[in-house]
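Below is how a single chain appears once it has passed through the pipeline. First comes the sequence as given, then the structure the pipeline wrote out for it. We keep one example in the README because the format questions we get most often are answered faster by looking than by reading.
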Amino acid sequence: MTEMKLLPQNRAQSALRFKLATMLLGIVMLAGCDQGQADTSNNVGQGFIVSQTKLERPGVDAAMVRITTKPGGAQIYINGHRRGDTPEQAGQTFAIKLAEGSYHIQVVKAIDANNEWRGERKDVFIADFTSPTVHIDMTRELTQKAIDKQKAEQKAKQDANDNAFKERYVLNNDGTVYDKKTNLIWMRCSLGQTWTGTTCSGDASRHFLQVAEDLAKQSRFAGKTDWRVPTVDELHSLVYCSSGQQRRLDASGGIVIRGGMVRQGSELTGRCEGDYSRPTIFTSAFPNTPRMFYWSASPIPIDSDLAWGVYFTIGGVSYSNRSNDGHVRLVRGGQ
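Resulting structure:
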């Protein structure tokens, strides 16, 4: 077999090619290190981390930037690129060289499935030949997954609200609403308000109970004159708890006699519980309803100075002295 010998010129060319290939590989590896990679291994910071923008390779005169966070142990993103983590121990810093320029620094740390620590500094200008320290105090916030879950739950609650409303009420063009459940017709507006054709304008007025009953007798609305102040059961039937949780309505309203005087327990009966919207009524049927006490015509037999009413703040039945003022919504029998 004939032995092949490399000429000096060929040896030089091969060595040059090897050297160039090695340098090119080093440049590629360095560039990859400098640019950083987006962290897609988990959902931490999802919906919070900005999209990636170019990071210039630092030169020999680049700044040495130190980053600290409270709490520590946070993931660091610079212009959307994951660059490392801040130390867990207080007083220690994460150091990185950055070329002169403006940077968006974001930090995030997982707490649990629904919460994470977040913080950021926008438009941080870093100059060459400097050694700045950037400290970021983080705040506790919901994760994007938890936010999406909340939105889905709110939509489901709104859909249930809409369905319950459609199954129960019929809106009339004359400012009244028919309740299919109780066969009653209600004024959509409280006394003192004006029906505009789409909503109730103005402020609801407040009256003594006797004045409210007199105004009801004088009322002529939607071509009818048989309007009246509702009973407490009729009034409380309007309570809507968007949470789906409602305390049982005690027939006594929680009334007790102490020292010969009427008293009510600390908890109003029939009230809403859980996370519910206020006022506790279908506002699509009864717009601009105050979150206050409304009179009923139901007396309290053991004390003629008192009468029942409903607080639409929480949906509970309570009582008040007839000489106190309260809001009024009138009703009539359905036909």
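Confidence is low (pLDDT under 50) at residues 1-7, 21-41, 256-262.

See the next section for the split statistics.
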